[in-house]
User: Which sequence fits this backbone?
């Protein structure tokens, strides 16, 4: 058995940090050491922020986003364009679109994508509520901002079918050349998609 270099409390901190995405045991140890060294200005405030977040975080009953209020800040913002709903797979995707700051629309978070192989069906996703939102009226366009994966595209098609009778316009993100991308580095699927969705200059 490996010799323990620290007490169980510190070992536990390292073990928990190692479960964060992108942190292996080595970087978790480094992060723990950093937190311990900066316990007044970092470890304490971080522990407080985590406790408050744990107590206050709720899922928005309208869109599925997480926030400290229900409805979330986006759903309760009157300046947002309520006639456009951007459908995303995860909250991380919502954050990415918000960071890009392109469209002041509302969102709908599915909580994943349909995946027959992994046993994820329509009832496992936040789809029924989306249909309900559109059925209430006032929505002109649903943008399916899902991943360009087989599961993402399956999900987009399924939702389009579910919304077909409601007369709302369904669109999806374009597939193709990334900004700053070089042809030589693209895979065949991306190249083919880029060619199919070519536009006039
Ligand atoms: Zn919301």
Assistant:
């Amino acid at each position: 058995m490996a010799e323990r270099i620290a007490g169980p409390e510190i070992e536990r901190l390292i073990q928990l940090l190692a479960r964060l995405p992108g942190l292996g045991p080595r970087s978790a140890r480094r992060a723990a050491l950093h937190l311990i060294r900066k316990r007044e200005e970092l470890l304490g405030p971080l522990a407080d922020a985590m406790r408050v977040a744990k107590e206050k975080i709720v899922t928005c009953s309208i869109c599925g986003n997480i926030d400290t209020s229900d409805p979330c800040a986006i759903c309760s913002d009157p300046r947002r364009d309520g006639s456009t709903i951007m459908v995303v797979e995860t909250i991380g995707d919502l954050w990415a679109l918000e960071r890009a700051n392109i469209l002041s629309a509302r969102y709908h978070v599915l909580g994943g994508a349909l995946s027959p192989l992994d046993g994820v069906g329509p009832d496992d996703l936040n789809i029924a509520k989306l249909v309900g939102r559109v059925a209430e009226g006032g929505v002109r366009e649903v943008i399916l901002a899902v991943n360009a994966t087989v599961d993402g595209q399956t999900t987009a098609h399924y939702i389009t079918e579910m919304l077909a009778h409601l007369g709302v316009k369904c669109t999806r993100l374009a597939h193709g050349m990334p900004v700053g991308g070089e042809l030589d580095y693209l895979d065949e699927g991306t190249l083919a998609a880029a060619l199919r969705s070519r536009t006039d200059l």
The mean pLDDT is 94. The first strand starts at residue 58 and ends at 59. The first helix runs from residue 8 to 17. Residues 60 and 173 are 25 Å apart (CA to CA).
